[in-house]
Amino acid sequence: MNPDEIHPLLLDQRSPDGVRTITFNRPDQLNAMNRALMSALISALAAANADPATRVVVLTGAGRAFMAGADLKEYAGQTRGEFDAFQALGRQLYAVIEGNAKPVVAAINGHCFGGGFEIALASDLILAVAGAKCGLPEINLALIPGGGGTQRLAQRAGLGRALDAAMTGRVLTAEELHGWGVVSHVYAAEEFSARVADYAAALAAREPAPLQALKRIARASVPAVHPAAMAAENEALGRFFASPEGRAKIEEFMARSAGRKTGKGGAR
C-alpha cells in the first residue's frame, strides 16, 4: 500500500516528518474489524515497516470510535474453519504490530473494545481522548478475548486488573487506564488530534536507530505472549463460539443492535 493511499477500509497517510498515520475507515460500523480490514491493516503495517521514510506509525479510527471490536455480522456467520482462519489472521496482525521495527502509537479517539483494545495493547504506546471507553466485553457474549488481550493487559496493568476487566466485561475509561499506566497520556477532545500529531512528530524527530533499539530492547525485557496460552485461548474461544450459549448471545446482541438502529430498542 502506497503512502497517502485512500483504501475503502483504511486511510494510509504519511507526513513529511516521517509520521505514518493509519486510520480505520468504517465509521458507520464504528470501525468494526472484518477480514478485509484486517488484511488491509496487515499490509499497511508491513509497508510501514519496510519504508525507510517512515519513522513512527500512528493507528487511529475515523469517526467516534477507535474500533468497536469484531464485525459481528461477519463473525456470526463464520463456519468453524472460517473462524479459525480469522483468528490466525488476527495473530498475524498483533505480530506485525509488536514486531514492527518502527514505534507504533495507538491513538484511541473513541470507543475501543474487544479486538480494538487488543490492537491498542499490542502497540508500543497508547494515547487516548478524555472519556474514551475501552474494554474486553467478550464475557457478555459467553466468549473470551481471542487476541491475547488478557495477557497483554496483565503485562501492562497486572493480573488482578486484567482478570477483573475480562471477567466482568466492564467499561474501562481512558482516565482509569491512565491511572493503571496502560495509557501514557489523555488529551481533551478539542485538542486530541493536534496533541497526537505533536507527540508523534516529537518521536519522529529522534534519530531512528536508537528509537528502534529502545523498542527492541524494551520488548525483549518483557515476556512475550505465551504460545501455549495463546493456543489454549484460541481452543477455548473456538469452543465457546460454537456453543449454543455463545451463538445465542451473539444473536441476541445483534438483535438488540438492529432494534436500536430502527428505533425499536430492546433490553440492553
TrEMBL record:
InterPro entries noted in UniProt: ClpP/crotonase-like_dom_sf, Enoyl-CoA_hyd/isom_CS, Enoyl-CoA_hydra/iso
GO molecular function (one): catalytic activity
GO biological process, one term: fatty acid beta-oxidation
Top-level lineage group: Bacteria
Pfam family, one: ECH_1
Family of this protein: Belongs to the enoyl-CoA hydratase/isomerase family.
Alphabetical list of PANTHER family matching this protein: ENOYL-COA HYDRATASE, MITOCHONDRIAL, ENOYL-COA HYDRATASE-RELATED
Protein name in UniProt: Enoyl-CoA hydratase
Taxonomic source organism: Termitidicoccus mucosus
